[in-house]
Design brief:
589 residues; mainly alpha; two-stranded antiparallel ribbon; 22 helices; 7 strands; 58% helix; globular
Length: 589
């Protein structure tokens, strides 16, 4: 009963953190990917119009959103299946999906915790219930900010993370229990179909899934011929299930296969070349793997959970090696095994190895991509949370003496410190949602302080401000991404600036990468004149003066004391959706 209480508490805490500030943009659809998915869902209608005509992401989340909204409309006579109504339903579905992920993390830790333990010194130290591996891992995921942030958006990556975690659970559970192999292959095919119908990049998990079937069959006692036949049978069932459900979840990928292939190839090309699209120029010259790890450490998980995760990963790998050595010595010395012990021991190793390699290969493949949106790593956050839980479990087994009078409770106090520190870190970021969105605040300032009929210079490839009331103003759109960055380009832009009463910078989307790409000898696309323009603008040398700035940073305030973190150096996608910095400049003339 106590264990159920802890799990319910974790899920309830996660729900509160994910629903808090769910109306962060006041219904203005300020997340571009979310906006696009809802626009696609808006033109879907069951069952007479199902062609999304859009395959940058899979169709399954879109169908789920539209189908559920239509069902609610039919049952309760509402108007939820509209562009505006689906916004909040979509965000609620993201929250629900992430709660399922947390529950699956709990189930996975239950599966793997007994498989990796060898009785060693300190391993029998009894942990309090709230510090058990199976609770601390889902708790760390529940309070990690990046999953919380993405649950505030209706985006494919949240659903992909849930389906991926479900696949891991099914693989480990069935490898451990080996029940009904045909049904196992069928269910794994179904989940894999849901993954690829959510986001095509899920195909990177295919080799690990095939590896499962190899373990599943060849760890048994059957003769080699029988093993090959069983493996072939399971592979056929898996692929048959996959293709059937992939067609159900995303039929127009087959019907409109040319459009599907074109969209997928476009995404693959983008991931291999940051120069293709303007909004990916931020990733030029960023280091593979390290860029992801830096953003996970500083912003995604935060330093405390990240350090625990690193410690846990190292220890996990060390314990896996110890496990292999332990069983190997038993085999070498031919200790009398119990019935089926050898098969069980090999199965234990296979379960731990499969769990580790599943996420390691994903990081290895995706981590080297040229384009490195933080959300691409969201599917490995469950693994990182589990490793953080494993890290604190191992740290607890050491005898720390922090304060002698409380020697008995030193390990608990240290563990509590880690948990509370992580939670405080998250609260600083959650505070973003207690404040008005910067673009909404900037819009209100513009309407109040800038006279109707004024000319506003805005940047292309970014949201135009003001968000509403724009009909009262004239606009000059600055084509700053255009190439070549030469005198002809800037003759036209300077003419636009001469007309402008104000320059509005809605985020750091342009000025961060374009200032970096100033060196034409180093970069394939370069912007020396644009970089110079920004330097002059920010140094008050262009004839424009900064008159307003709207920024929301993660912070913690207690009375007059305030701790604030400037996160503008984070991956652009971490700030640009829910708390971009907005800067307004006024012409001095």
């Amino acid at each position: 009963m106590k264990k159920q209480f802890f799990l319910i508490f974790i899920l309830f805490l996660a729900l509160i953190l994910r629903l808090y500030g769910i109306n962060w943009d006041q219904g203005l659809h300020l997340h571009p990917d979310e906006r696009m998915l809802i626009m696609v869902a808006d033109r879907i209608h069951f069952f007479d119009q199902l062609n999304p005509n859009f395959f940058n992401y899979g169709s399954l989340p879109i169908y789920l959103l539209k189908g559920l909204s239509q069902l609610i409309d039919w049952l309760f006579d509402t108007s939820l299946s509209t562009y505006q109504g689906m916004l909040y339903l979509g965000r609620f579905l993201s929250t629900l999906s992430d709660l399922i992920t947390i529950f699956l993390i709990y189930k996975i830790t239950q599966l793997i915790q007994s498989n990796l333990e060898i009785k060693t010194k300190g391993s029998n130290i009894k942990q309090p219930l709230w510090l058990l591996f199976q609770f601390i891992s889902p708790l760390f995921y529940a309070i990690a900010f990046f999953p919380i942030q993405n649950s505030h958006f209706f985006i494919s990556d949240v659903f992909l993370t849930t389906f991926t975690t479900l696949l891991v659970f099914l693989l480990l559970k069935n490898l451990k229990e080996k029940n009904k192999p045909g049904l196992t292959a069928f269910l794994i095919g179904l989940v894999f179909a849901a993954m690829t119908a959510t986001k095509f990049t899920a195909v990177v998990f295919y080799p690990m899934t095939i590896l499962f079937f190899l373990f599943y069959v060849f760890l048994g006692k059957n003769l080699l011929k029988e093993k090959i036949l069983n493996f072939s049978f399971l592979i056929v069932i898996f692929h048959l299930s996959f293709f059937i459900f992939n067609f159900i979840f995303m039929p127009y990928a087959f019907i409109e296969n040319k459009k599907f292939l074109d969209d997928v190839l476009s995404q693959i090309q983008m991931n291999n070349n940051p120069y293709i699209f303007p909004y990916t120029l931020q990733y030029v010259d960023t280091l593979p793997y390290f860029y992801y790890l830096k953003n996970i450490f500083l912003w995604g998980l935060g330093p405390i959970i990240s350090i625990l995760s690193f410690i846990g990963t190292i220890w996990f790998f060390v314990d896996l090696v110890k496990l292999v050595k332990f069983y190997r010595l038993k085999f070498i010395h031919k200790l009398p095994p119990k019935k089926n012990e050898k098969e069980a021991q090999l199965k234990n190793i296979a379960i731990i190895f499969l769990f580790f390699i599943f996420y390691f290969l994903y990081f290895l493949i995706i981590g080297r991509s040229a384009v490195k949106f933080m959300r691409y790593m969201l599917p490995i956050y469950p693994f990182l949370a589990i490793m953080a839980g494993y890290g604190i479990k191992k740290i607890y087994n050491f005898q720390f003496i922090i304060y002698k009078p409380l020697k008995k409770f030193n390990n608990q106090l240290l563990s509590l410190f880690f948990i509370l520190s992580s939670f405080v870190w998250t609260l600083m970021f959650i505070n973003i949602y207690s404040q008005k969105h910067t673009r909404i605040a900037a819009t209100e300032w513009i309407l109040k302080n800038i006279s109707p009929g004024s000319t506003l210079a805005v940047e292309h490839w970014d949201d135009r401000l003001p968000l509403f009331g724009g009909e009262n103003y004239n606009f000059e759109e600055l084509q700053l991404y255009n190439i070549p960055d030469d005198d002809l380009k800037w003759t036209f832009i300077n003419q636009q600036l001469d007309k402008a009463d104000y320059i509005i910078i809605a985020s750091n989307r342009l000025y961060i990468p374009l200032q970096k790409l100033a060196n034409c000898q180093r970069y394939k696309l370069c912007y020396p004149k644009t970089a110079q323009y920004y330097r002059k603008l920010f140094n008050n040398q262009l004839g424009f003066k900064k008159v307003a700035e709207f920024a929301v940073y993660p912070k913690l305030e207690i009375g007059d004391w305030k701790l604030e973190i400037n996160d503008q150096n984070a991956d652009e996608s971490f700030t640009v959706y829910d708390h971009p910095k907005v800067i307004l400049f006024k012409n001095k003339k």
